[in-house]
Q: What sequence folds into this?
């Protein structure tokens, strides 16, 4: 049995993940790359070997062939899916993992997909012992584990308020851009999926945890101008807060982009608004998609110049703490690292005994935090 399988490894981020995994696999570990085309998968194998990594096996599987998906899932311990857009192509891999009782990770930042998968497959995953962990890239590990790290510094038993402020210099992935356009385009379906999940998902007993829409303004601690970010990250953080007592009795999280000047904040707000409008107009949406293609990405030299930071300000029990998560290229290099390390963590570490659809903080917590720090990502308390 292969410990880890990457399904959809022939895309740009999938190949980066394969190279990282192949060069960081522990001694005696086994793994495979999976997809529809043996020839394209062989190209991935060649890239892994050229980088000095352990060559993977090749497994043929197709989302339209349930038997092949089932065989792939039953032959592994951890299934990585990089097959997007997830709302269109992601269900078969989640279903196969939930039924096989294995661990599953992906890169989705699509709230509709995550909520729909909870409604469809959470109960089956709980019964089988599967761990379904979405959003294991820049969406949403720096934010989820950053919040987890911050509340550990607070040690608050009462109400906790936390805000995360993202800054970055880098190229976003084509998959992320297409997912964002899809979210704007499918806002009605996304809202319905959220409501259906709330209807069936239990609430924590004796505690509260929620994402709170922040307001634009200047942060009194960080000095940045804040722009609320409509991403999946606040939902993920709030779900970790609902699951774990360390987040206090009443946890509230708000999520922002931070800029040094008001001009950039205003420009960012205008840009997001214009993209949102364009996404609802088919000709404009198609033009935007043609400008940023999926499966392509920047050169290694350009990625080396990219970076990100997420600052967190947490308040609870009369104390305030400021922490920071930072790393390199968020859209590709760090995302591939985070996804691969998540899979390695689930395959080889002694993690909490959880099942069903869970967050990274729930499923891996301290183990993944330690792995990412060892891999070069910084989690620090800022004086």
A:
């Amino acid at each position: 049995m292969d410990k880890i399988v990457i399904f959809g490894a022939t895309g740009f981020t999938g190949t980066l993940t394969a190279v990282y995994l192949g060069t960081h696999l522990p001694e005696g570990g086994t793994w495979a790359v999976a997809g529809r085309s043996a020839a394209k998968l062989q190209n991935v194998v060649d890239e892994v070997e050229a980088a000095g990594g352990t060559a993977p096996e090749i497994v043929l599987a197709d989302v339209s062939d349930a038997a092949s998906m089932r065989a792939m899932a039953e032959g592994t311990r951890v299934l990585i899916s990089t097959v997007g857009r997830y709302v269109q192509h992601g269900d078969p891999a989640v279903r196969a993992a939930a039924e096989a009782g294995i661990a599953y990770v992906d890169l989705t930042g699509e709230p509709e997909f995550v909520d729909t998968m909870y409604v469809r497959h959470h109960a089956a995953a709980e019964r089988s012992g599967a761990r379904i962990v979405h959003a294991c890239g820049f969406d949403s590990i720096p934010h989820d584990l950053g919040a987890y790290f911050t509340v550990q510094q607070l040690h608050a038993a009462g109400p906790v308020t936390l805000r995360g402020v993202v800054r970055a210099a880098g190229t976003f992935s084509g998959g992320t851009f297409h997912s964002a356009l899809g979210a704007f385009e499918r806002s009605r379906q996304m809202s319905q999926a959220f409501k259906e999940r709330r209807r069936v998902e239990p609430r924590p007993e004796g505690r509260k945890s929620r994402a709170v829409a922040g307001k634009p303004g200047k942060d009194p601690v960080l000095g940045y101008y804040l722009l609320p970010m409509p991403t999946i990250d606040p939902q993920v953080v709030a779900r970790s807060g609902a699951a774990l007592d360390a987040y206090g009795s009443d946890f509230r999280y708000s999520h922002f982009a931070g800029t040094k000047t008001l001009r950039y904040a205003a420009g960012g707000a205008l840009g997001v608004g214009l993209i949102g409008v364009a996404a609802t107009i088919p000709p404009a949406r198609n033009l935007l998609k043609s400008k940023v293609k999926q499966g392509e990405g920047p050169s290694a030299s350009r990625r080396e110049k990219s970076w990100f930071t997420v600052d967190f300000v947490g308040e609870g029990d009369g104390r305030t703490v400021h922490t920071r998560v930072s790393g390199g290229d968020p859209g590709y290099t760090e995302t591939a690292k985070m996804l691969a390390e998540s899979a390695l963590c689930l395959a080889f570490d002694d993690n909490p005994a959880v099942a069903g659809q869970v967050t990274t903080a729930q499923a891996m917590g301290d183990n993944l935090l330690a792995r990412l720090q060892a891999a070069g990502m910084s989690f620090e308390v800022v004086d």
